[in-house]
Amino acid sequence: MAVTEAETTSAVYVYGIVRSGAVGDVKSEGVGGGAIEQVEREGLAALVTPLPTTELRVKRRDLNRHLRVLEEVLETATVVPCSFATISARDDITNGLLVDRRAELRSALDRLDGKVQMNVKAVYVEEELLREIVKTNPQVAGLRDSARTGRKRGYHAQLELGELVAAAVADRRQRDAGRLARELAASAADVVVDAPDGAALKFSFLVSRARLDRFDKDVEAIAEREQPLLHFEVIGPLPPTAFASAYAGV
Prior knowledge:
The chain is of the alpha+beta class. It contains 8 helices and 10 strands.
């Protein structure tokens, strides 16, 4: 459903940007249960849902609606996703975003053509991680042995050991994140490395659809090699939400 710039200046929820004419009617339910419209200008179209106000408070289930809309669109077209809960006045879309940033958005669409996002999570088995640290860090191993044999006991000794282990874990996570990102990036167009989350390393890869099989095989080979220290989980293909801001600042 296309809407011209002169029809209304009401508030809209914005899902993402596509090329004009690239997407037909979107069947997925929009945020707040509304329909999906397209606001077009300059050869671009913003996928939106009309809202009663720009102050609308989105709910948790609206995140699923947001993602379903993007996933449906991604089946047939390239989309530059907007962040969840992007709300704007319609005039700011037609007379602002689609005009002022048309070159950025067109470039972003070109960069994302034929590509999807693959999320990879690598979770440490903590016992294996600690075993590796003791094995490769003589200072940690020595202090742990002293604590066990009674040569160095007490609160301060335990505190020192805890600090050493925490530093060694942080260093290992940083090195592993960089190493795994470099290896998997060989079959991807781009990568975003997220901050470590507890016992997990998280990555988002931008992968050409034509190279998805190669990417999957690379992940499988690395996951097999990294056992038993790391367990891998892969989610995708997904809309390239982690890369839209990198390319267009949307």
